[in-house]
User: Fold Enoyl-[acyl-carrier-protein] reductase [NADH] from Gomphosphaeria aponina SAG 52.96 = DSM 107014.
Amino acid sequence: MLDLTGKNALVTGIANNRSIAWGIAQQLHQAGANLGVTYLPDEKGRFEKKVRELVEPLNPSIFLPCDVQNEPQIEEGFQTIAAQWGKLDILIHCLAFANKEDLSGEFSATSREGFTQALEISSYSLTRLAKAAKPLMNEGGSIVTLTYLGGVKVIPNYNVMGIAKSALEMSVRYLAAELGPKNIRVNAISAGPIRTLASSAVGGILDMIHHVEQVAPLRRTVTQTEVGNTAAFLCSDLASGITGQIIYVDAGYEIMGM
Ligand code: NDP
Assistant:
């Protein structure tokens, strides 16, 4: 049975009720996990208020700001987790960012700053958070990140985010190899396109979704709940033999050649 009772799970990347991380948090909660939630702080505190209200029904015992570009914030956050929880069992890395102008048009036009920022936020952050989580995963653990087919194949307009996802997927493998002896498993879910704040920045996302609905074996896209169910599975003992993998939750689209 899928049971996460007694497990402490930190979920990053909830922006609103469309976020994939929100689907994951709900499924982890349903499986009995004790939740911690991070949000990206803004100057006016609007994101904090919005995310706090959204996650309230899941009773998170930790609620923290975490901008993955902010070193002191990461350190403070994990100190709080160490003090309050003592151990961490599950880390959900569900965030990404690239400038809107770098998510359409010619890939060769990507700016140096845009490239660096996209890779730092969307790829390096997994390694940084895994480093912080490692000493707290003293009873083993599970780290799950979110990727997309655009990291493996060319998808129009995905551009610099494809490079970031490619680096992210390879990071999953290096982290899995390093952390495996501590019984920490690291996997990625490659989700099919879902309408969210982040995906709306990708040029032509609606056409992409429409195409998937016509071509994918299941003739539809996937939901946040389906991704959340797979994440809960990967975090549970049912997946104890799985690490370093990219699991496609995409209604089968990835297998199609045409
Ligand atoms: P959301 O916009 O809901 O989530 C993206 C999250 O990343 C937001 O919470 C955002 O915060 C956060 N974020 C951005 N920059 C930072 C930062 N510097 N520090 C901390 N958090 C940050 O979109 P999704 O749910 O779609 O995205 C979640 C993950 O799923 C991403 O990795 C995405 O690439 C991946 N994915 C999405 C697919 C899709 O079609 N939607 C398909 C496959 C993978 P805020 O909004 O407050 O700025």
Notes: The helical segments are 20-30, 46-55, 71-85, 112-133, 159-179, 205-215, 224-235. The chain has one domain: 8-248. Residues 13-15, 18-21, 40, 47, 66-69, 94-97, 121, 146-148, 191, 193-194, 196-199 surround NDP (CB under 6 Å).
